[in-house]
Amino acid sequence: MKNRTVIGIICMVLAVITTFAIAPMVNRLTSDTTTVIRLAGEVKQGAQITEDKIETAEVKTDSIPAGIITQKSAVVGKYASSNLYAGDYFTAGKITSEANTADDVFASLDGSKVAVSITIDTFAAGLSGKLQNGDIISVIVTDKETGTTSIPGSLKYLKVITTTTAGGVDKDSVVKNDDGTYELPSTVTVLVNTEQAKLLAKYEDNCTMQTALVYRGDKDTANKFIEKQDEYLKNGGTANE
Predict the structure, then answer these.
(1) Cα 42 to chain center, whole Å?
(2) In 3-state terms, what secondary structure has residue 23?
(3) Helix (H, G, I), strand (E, B) or coil at 58
(4) Between vectors from CA 137 to CA 136 and to CA 141, what angle results, nearest 5°?
(5) pLDDT tens-digit profile of 181-225?
(6) Which one of 43, 72, 96 terminates a domain?
(7) Is 5 contained in some domain?
(8) Is 108 within 8 Å of 187 (Cβ atoms)?
């Protein structure tokens, strides 16, 4: 009888501990969540983010990465600044208020800049097929006769409009092959002024050209590189290099 009483008391104490200590702690751990938004499917660079591409999810508050966007209204109608995939969270660097397709850039040309394509002679010359719309690149030039290699000051920071396959398909329209691969680009189209365009045309005949990625990211930072390039040309940088 005495043993039963002791066991009963122990059970009562454990029940009290569970009710007033352990249970609230578990509730706090499991209830401290936040509703976030994330991608429900793949969105290619330059494509508009529509509401059907977004899903909500409950995640632990302390596991949420810093800087993610949690409101649909801040995302719907914006455009992907790079290829995005199912499950991706949204951050300011992943979306833009402007489309970034080749057609959008072409439509915005006002005479101050022109679009010029250069040939990608080798897999490596086109950054192994990894260039994206909006990338900032440098053009590495090698003279076919002398073998001299340089990065001309006039071609240090150029904006990639798009890359295009031999079949004429731009980067933002390329689809996956049945075997999971993609058709590689054969040209890269860049945004330049007329003097830079002449220089590229000259190098197209007499030299080989290779691209080097300088920056990929938010538009404001990318524009700073372009502004630096424009300043160089304005202050005496010559296209006759």
Answers:
(1) 13
(2) helix
(3) strand
(4) 160
(5) 888 899 999 999 999 999 999 999 899 999 999 999 888 899 999
(6) 96
(7) no
(8) no
